[in-house]
Amino acid sequence: MNDLIRPALYNAEHKIIPLRKNKINSKKTYEFVGPICESTDKFAIIKKFQKLNEKEFVAICDVGAYGTSLSSNYNVRPKPLEILIRDSKIQIISKRQKLSELM
Prior knowledge:
Number of strands: 6
Shape: globular
Distance between the termini: 21 Å
Order of helices and strands: HEEEEHEE
Structural class: mainly beta
Largest sheet: 2 strands, antiparallel
Number of domains: 1
CATH architecture: Beta Barrel
Radius of gyration: 15 Å
CATH class: Mainly Beta
Strand content: 25-35%
Number of helices: 2
């Protein structure tokens, strides 16, 4: 909710992809949620997603300009790293906020 409120606020859907691809689909249903203890801090529920292990990363795609402008420090959470991927080139738009910057 604090990093990307659009799914909670507008029921917006964003494609979620694993950063490391494999060819093993899980039989489980994955529920992608955020770090806030709120029932609406949920990005997606996906069946037949690639098998993921603990500490593997996924990307939430096509967040757009409103991702950052609608983000907040709710629950004293630092704002996330923001990147732009264009033509297979990665550009850091803003670094992850440090907790010390909030105090």
